[in-house]
Structure formats: structure tokens, C-alpha cells
Predict the 3D structure of the following.
Amino acid sequence: MPPRLRSVVPAITFVLVVAAAYGILRFKRSELVDFVVPRTAAVRFLAHEPLYRPEDGHYQYKYLPAFAAAMVPFTWVSTEVAQATWFTLTWAMAVAFVRLSLYALPDRRLSSRVLMWLTALLCGKFLFKELAFGQFNLPVGLLMVGAVIAAQQGRRLTSGVAVAAGVFVKPYALVWVPWLVRTIGWRALASFTLVMAAGLALPVVSYGWEGNLTLLHEWYRTVTETTRPNLLVADNVSFASMWAKWIGPGPQATNLALGSAVTAMAAGALVMLRRRQVAEPNFLEASYFGVLITLLSPQGWDYTLVLGLPGFMLLVDRWRDLSMAWRAIALAGFFLTSFTIFDLLGRTIYIRLVELSAVSVGAVLIAACLVRIRWKGLA
């Protein structure tokens, strides 16, 4: 094969695979349901209309107001073209997320090929849902890995900017702020604060100061009011959902969820306190909080675990360094999070595992394994 032709084969393959996947997806679905929500908000943003509307039901806009402004370019083309474009970008981001996680992984034990394929297998369920729904977790994942790489290279300001940008895509990126403050320092916090201030003020150009304050109030109302009805949804794997499914919604479940969240964050603090044991601590710490996001967010859907992809990769890479007991814990975590799939297990087993919040338990086990890796000074 001529060298010039060989150089374009990967690009051609990528285009064909994306086109085939999109064609199959659209055969089964009428639209990328989660992509349509912020695109609709962008249309409303341009028209100076309210963004947060209870009549939108389950598909209410729950992102911060500035994200509607960021979605404006997708209103310049038809809905169909916009969806196809986002699907292609999401596919490219999935590839980039895996590759950049591999690049950032310190002191790698396994070959890149083995790590990439095993990580893709374990996170395939989450990646598939991201693509099928037109979700926006992958941009957050890329920003998180970017923040880690910047921290590894001593570019603290860039880390702060990346985390702040992630918050405007998905507000639960705030979970990374403790890592940012504790491990990178005041410069990262300063850049984070400046970007946050600018982003929060951005909608003023369309709504004015008073209108922007109204939008922020409506955002808070929407997020809080839509939490309780979603606690018992099968795909919700947060601490709040886990306890609600186990003992029923109510004050006791809320208190237990809060206690679980505090414990998980305390474990994260312990992880950061022991960072001097390793040469490069940022990857594991950011990965731990990436897994934690799904558990801490009251509306943490199972596919949000795609943000834990670097953590899954790290755990696979350090597999041989773990004791037999911790390997068993990791295997249980992998199975419960990655393979609790209706088509794989069948209706009876799947429903029972959902009732037991199996994915939530699996995520806790994965997080515990990451804490163990730091405790042993393996990463």
C-alpha cells in the first residue's frame, strides 16, 4: 500500500465506523434525547426566553445557564445535522479520553494495547450510553484528564481553568475542587474562580443582570425539585438512590446518604494526605473523585461512571500488585458496574440487581480499591 494511502486509512476507518454506528442508532432511536435538551435551551437563549421549564418534564434543562450559550453553534444547522455532528464529536472524544488517560497514567505496568482494550471492555456500557443518548460527560472527562496532565507538567493555572470549564458542562465537576485546592494550590484556585465568575456572568449579554440572577435561581430550583422523583429510577446509582431503594425514601435515607457522602469525601482526603508516598499522585486522586461523582450526585445515572474510566484503567494496570482478597473485591466491582446489563443477565436477575443497587455497590468497591492502591503506595 502506498505510504500516502496508508496514512489516511485510520481516518477513513473512523468515518466508516462512526457512520455505521450512527445509522444503526438512528434506526432504533428517533433522536439523541439528551443532546436535544441543551440545543433547545440554546434556541431559547438566543430568543431571551426562560430556560428552565417544569413543563419539559423529565427532559428539563439542568445545566448552568452559560452552557446554553456554548451550545448556540449547534443551532446554526438543522437538528439532524447537529445530532450527527455531536455523535461524531462524542465518538472522537471517547477515543481521545482513553488515549489521554493512557498517556497520563504514571509508571505503567501493562502494554498500551492491553490497557486500552480492557478499559474499553469494562467501560463499554457507559461509553455506549454516552453515544446513544447524546450525553455530555465525555467533555468533562477530557477536561479532567487535561487538568491532570497540566498538573503533571506544573501548569497550575491550566488545571484550574479546565476544572471550571467542566463545571459549566456538568456542575458535579465541582467534586474535583478539593483535589484542585489541596494538591495544586492557590494559583489553580485563582484561575478556577476567575473562569467561574466569567461563566456565571456570561448570560447577562442575553438576559441582563436581573434576568441572569433569575436564571440561576431557576437552575437551583430545577435541580432540587427534580431530585426526589428520580431517586427510585433504575439507572440512578447515587448514594441517595441507593439508600432510598434499600429502606425507602425519607429523612433516614437522606441522612444515610449524607453520611455515605461524607465518608467517601473523607476517604478522598486521606488519599490526598498520603500523596507523598508516590512520585505522581494526581492521576489516582482525580480518578478517585471521577468515580465518586456518580455516587455523590443525587441524579447520578449509571453512565456517569464513564468519568471513572481513568480509575478503571489504573486498577487494571495495578492488578498484579493487589492481594488476592483485593483482586476479588475489584472483580466484584467490575462485574456489578460494567456487566449489570439487561440483555446480558435477563429480566429477573437484572431487576433484582437494580433493586439491590448493585451498580452503586460496585462503584463503592472500585473506589475502595483506588484508596487501597494509594494506601499501599502503588500509585
Remarks:
- Residues 284 and 379 are 6 Å apart (CA to CA).
